[in-house]
Amino acid sequence: MATADATPADITQTIAALRAIDTLRADFVQTDVNGGRMTGTLTMKRPGRIRFQYQPGVPLLIVSDGAALTMIDYEVRQVQRWPIRNSPLGALLDPNKDVARFARLNPTGRSDLISMAVRDPGHPEYGTLTLLMVRKASAPGGLELDSWITTDAQSRRTMVRLLNPQHGVVVNDSAFRWTDPRPQSHRAG
Q1: What per-residue confidence (pLDDT) applies to 120?
Q2: What is the spatial distance between Cα 103 and Cα 12, in angstroms, rounded to a whole number?
Q3: In what order do the strands lie in the sheet containing 37-45?
Q4: Which of 79, 141, 148, 189 is the most buried (most CB within 10 A)?
Q5: DSSP string of 93-143?
Q6: Per-residue pLDDT at 185 exceeds 70
Q7: Mean pLDDT across 26-35
Q8: What is the 3-state secondary structure (H, E, C) of the chain?
Q9: pLDDT for the residue 4
Q10: Average pLDDT over the chain, rounded to whole?
Q11: Which residue has the higher pLDDT, 36 or 186?
């Protein structure tokens, strides 16, 4: 069972399992603080690339190309970008982030579940990422990423739960490209 006074070895094992994920494809359910739910497909490829393709009818796309996390809202033709390191997802995506320095394990009451919170106290504006991992021998590193909770600087929580995860699938780099909805004159490189 994970405890609040977990050892550095426990944190090291959890980080190693995250870094052992080469590629991942899964369905997801995203739940916001008000209980609103959206579904979609998550695609991840190391280092640093992720794509949240939302259900039909949701005009959002979130993509990381390895350097920046980009949120595209096709309905209002808006694009927002953040360096991965400035996002709560940096703990999951940024291969250079010293996760162990900012991580702590939370008690779960279950021997098969590990909860690891990552928060940079020097940058509270980046928020907190709490990763929930289930012990599973067939998963990379023996731990399967089950879900995560992001808590932003305003304490708004969003939970993403993964369903039907597939590890080691072929993922083309084109999965991390997107179509810019803004007029040509407003594009940022």
Answers
A1: 83
A2: 10
A3: 78-83, 68-73, 60-65, 49-54, 37-45, 23-31, 157-167, 143-151, 128-135, 113-119, 103-106
A4: 148
A5: H-TTS-HHHHEEEEP-S-TTEEEEEEE-TT-GGG-EEEEEEEE-TTSGGGE
A6: no
A7: 96
A8: CCCCCCCHHHHHHHHHHHHCCCEEEEEEEEECCCCCEEEEEEEEECCCEEEEEECCCCCEEEEEECCEEEEEECCCCEEEEEEHHHCCCHHHHCCCCCHHHHEEEECCCCCCEEEEEEECCCCHHHCEEEEEEEECCCCHHHEEEEEEEEECCCCCEEEEEEEEEEECCCCCHHHHCCCCCCCHHHCCC
A9: 43
A10: 88
A11: 36
Tokens (6 digits) for 169? 């699938």
Check whether 171 has a pLDDT greater than 90: yes
Distance between CA atoms of residues 21 and 170, nearest Å: 13
Residue 91: count of CB within 10 angstroms of its CB: 28
Model pTM? Answer: 0.86
Report pLDDT for 12: 85
Contact status, residue 17 vs residue 10, Cβ threshold 8 Å = no
Give strand pairing partners of 26. 42
Q: For residue 90, what is the DSSP state?
A: H
Q: Which of 113, 125, 83, 118 is nearest to 99 (CA)?
A: 118
Domains assigned to the chain = 8-166 (2.50.20.10)
